[in-house]
Amino acid sequence: MTDYKQEQDMEIEALEAILMDEFKEIHSSESGLNTSKRCFEITICPQDDEADDSNIPSVRLALIFSHTENYPDEPPLLNCKSLKGIQTSDLRALKEKLEQEAAENLGMAMVYTLVTSAKEWLSERFAQDAGDDDDGEDEAAKDEVIIPHGEPVTVDSFLIWREKFEAELALERAKLIPDSALAAPKEKRLTGRQWFESGRASAKGTAAAEEDEDIDEDIDFDDDDFEVDEDDMIEHYLADKTES
Fold it and tell me: Where is the composition biased (Acidic residues) (predicted)?
């Protein structure tokens, strides 16, 4: 003859040792069960406290059970109660699932098996909700239209700007050449580049040239794409200045 009372007491001791603070005895009036026998409440979360899964919302479930007279040869009395964030429809669905599993595990201590099943069900159920929310946010982000501001840069507009910039730079350098350099015959006259490379620039001119060189180093141009003859620009400027 099976000693049901002994098996039930042994299961209670095992659950206390395994679940610790998550396991407690409650009064039958708090259980929601139609019984006067001992009732117990187990707190269940979707995942362990150590797990770092931000996709699962913070929900908590109380699984309440009481052993029947011939447990485990007959299923225990079960009740599910929300401690945080679980809808009544979810509680009803979970209870039906656990009652079905209890009927499939008759003849053996099954409460811890039901606890594990409840935890897995909560994880899947609320992780799915979190995934649906994330999908909605992604769709909303896709619907946002980003309108660019300002005039877009094209190859043509860049080349126009570059030509203007280098022309202005060449003219500024030409202005640093003293008037005495203009008096020399054309065949003996140094080009702008030769004049700068000869070291005849004034201190002011040298400082300005160094500043221009810093500018040149900061801007990386591809000479294969666009070529400018700086000497021609300077010679053109000097010729205009001589004629005037």
Answer: 209-223
